[in-house]
């Protein structure tokens, strides 16, 4: 993975509401952006998820880093919170440890063209309560979870 500052912007997406777009070509293995947010425990995440649902926040900005830790980008996040899921994505999310602290980095697994939407596979666990996937990929699995 190579770290360099890629120019990005959020804009309306064909997949869902807002998405994140590359303002310049991004090479394979480049780190696109870190997924920043507040690190919270599972119990807090469960509680917040209910509050967010009740308050009508239709999108989830919770990203699991391990069994008991979640990054919540709902109120304290960066542009990475706008990245939509795709079943055939151009990026991957990777958990790395820096100075004992786990971080989420999004890096390109395919060349990303200027103007292209940046996506990764959310890899949500299978659940009964299905979220339809609107990624539009030929290989779309139909659901996020
Ligand atoms: C981290 S947000 C992504 C940004 C979101 N589009 C927005 O405008 O805030 C995650 C939410 O976006 C929606 N989403 C992302 N990818 C999707 C997809 N492929 N199909 C349907 N909804 C998607 C879901 O509501 C999900 O909970
Ligand atoms: Zn899909």
TrEMBL record:
Keyword S-adenosyl-L-methionine: yes
Localization (cell): Nucleus
Pfam family for this entry, one: SET
GO biological process, alphabetically ordered: methylation
Record keywords: Chromatin regulator, Methyltransferase, Nucleus, S-adenosyl-L-methionine, Transferase
Top EC group: transferase
PROSITE patterns for the chain: POST_SET, SET
Phosphoprotein listed as a keyword: no
GO cellular component, one term: Set1C/COMPASS complex
The Post-SET domain, residue ranges: 129-145
Lineage top rank: taxon: Eukaryota
EC identifiers of the protein: 2.1.1.354
Family matches, as InterPro entries: Post-SET_dom, Set1-like, SET_dom, SET_dom_sf
Catalytic reactions on record: L-lysyl(4)-[histone H3] + 3 S-adenosyl-L-methionine = N(6),N(6),N(6)-trimethyl-L-lysyl(4)-[histone H3] + 3 S-adenosyl-L-homocysteine + 3 H(+); N(6)-methyl-L-lysyl(4)-[histone H3] + S-adenosyl-L-methionine = N(6),N(6)-dimethyl-L-lysyl(4)-[histone H3] + S-adenosyl-L-homocysteine + H(+); N(6),N(6)-dimethyl-L-lysyl(4)-[histone H3] + S-adenosyl-L-methionine = N(6),N(6),N(6)-trimethyl-L-lysyl(4)-[histone H3] + S-adenosyl-L-homocysteine + H(+)
Single GO MF annotation: histone H3K4 trimethyltransferase activity
Domain SET residue range list: 6-123
PANTHER family: HISTONE-LYSINE N-METHYLTRANSFERASE SETD1
Protein known as: [histone H3]-lysine(4) N-trimethyltransferase
High-level lineage: Eukaryota, Fungi, Fungi incertae sedis, Chytridiomycota, Chytridiomycota incertae sedis
């Amino acid at each position: 993975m190579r770290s360099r500052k890629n120019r990005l912007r959020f804009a309306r997406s064909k997949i869902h509401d807002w998405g994140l777009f590359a303002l310049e070509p991004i090479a394979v293995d480049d780190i696109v952006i870190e997924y920043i947010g507040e690190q919270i425990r599972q119990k807090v995440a469960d509680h917040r998820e209910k509050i967010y649902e009740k308050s009508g926040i239709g999108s989830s900005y919770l990203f699991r880093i391990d069994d008991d830790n979640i990054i919540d980008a709902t109120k304290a996040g960066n542009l990475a919170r706008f990245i939509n899921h795709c079943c055939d994505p151009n990026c991957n999310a990777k958990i790395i440890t820096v100075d004992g602290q786990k971080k989420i980095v999004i890096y390109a697994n395919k060349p990303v063209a200027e103007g292209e939407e940046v996506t990764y596979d959310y890899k949500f666990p299978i659940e009964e309560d299905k979220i339809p996937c609107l990624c539009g990929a030929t290989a779309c699995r139909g659901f996020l979870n």
